[in-house]
Amino acid sequence: MSTAAPGLLASVTDLHEMELARAGGADIVDLKQPAFGTLGAWSTDALAAAVMLWTAWGEQLGEAGRPALSATIGDQPMVPALVRTAAERVARTGVPLVKIGLSASQHTNECIEALAPLASRTRLIGVLFADEAPDFAVLAALGRAGFAGVMIDTADKKAGSLTEHFDPLTLGQFVAEARRHGLMTGLAGSLRLEDIPALVGVGADYLGFRGALCEGGRTGTLDPVRLGQVHARLREPSDH
Ligand SMILES: O=C[C@H](O)COP(=O)(O)O
């Protein structure tokens, strides 16, 4: 059975990298500051400038010709009021997809519930962390709260890549369970070029990258050549 290629999510740190990611064929341009943490956030002013650029892309290229735009809310403790405030700050700038880290904690479900009112106005993506042994039962809570999607990433970038924490079978179960709850899906976590063939077969909607796209690691600078290699590998025919 052949599988449709997943889209490419590229995390970027500034407007210049945003342009490089668009030109390099990213399907989602993801605003993130890795120097500030796993899901380090852009400042409010920088997010507003990014939304202006993304709006200009829409005028020049049309809705279908521009990538989607997402942004992270920063690494937040699992305190409902703090998570909600951070997510609302990003949503208010007009970023259409807001990515929210959901660490494994006894308060994770309360945080998800606290985001339900925002989820009715803005598309929210919950991010689970493979190195925290997440409970996939959280997928039902995300679906109930009206989230648009879910990603699985790694929190500790020194503790191994996604593929070292989960095998393709487990990731396939994650994708199937997320779909059952109406969620689009993404996989990320120190993914390298050589991880792509096995992950394409998992069937997620997106694969996310930062470190593999950069000169000097994930806090370095986006390299169009590396981006081109990842983009090409994602589109190589697969037969899984
Ligand atoms: O959302 C995707 C991430 O930015 C992935 O970052 P990473 O490839 O450095 O783990």
UniProtKB/TrEMBL annotation:
* Pfam families membership: 4HFCP_synth (PF04476)
Q: Which UniProt keywords apply?
A: Lyase, Schiff base
Report if keyword Transport is assigned. no
Catalyzed reactions: 2 D-glyceraldehyde 3-phosphate = 4-(hydroxymethyl)-2-furancarboxaldehyde phosphate + phosphate + 2 H2O
- What EC class is this? lyase
MF (Gene Ontology): lyase activity
- Known InterPro entries for this protein? 4HFCP_synth
Q: Where is the active site?
A: 32 (schiff-base intermediate with substrate), 99 (proton acceptor)
Q: What is its EC number?
A: 4.2.3.153
Tell me, in a sentence or two, what this protein's role is: Catalyzes the formation of 4-(hydroxymethyl)-2-furancarboxaldehyde phosphate (4-HFC-P) from two molecules of glyceraldehyde-3-P (GA-3-P).
Its recorded name reads (5-formylfuran-3-yl)methyl phosphate synthase
Q: Which organism is it from?
A: Ancylobacter rudongensis
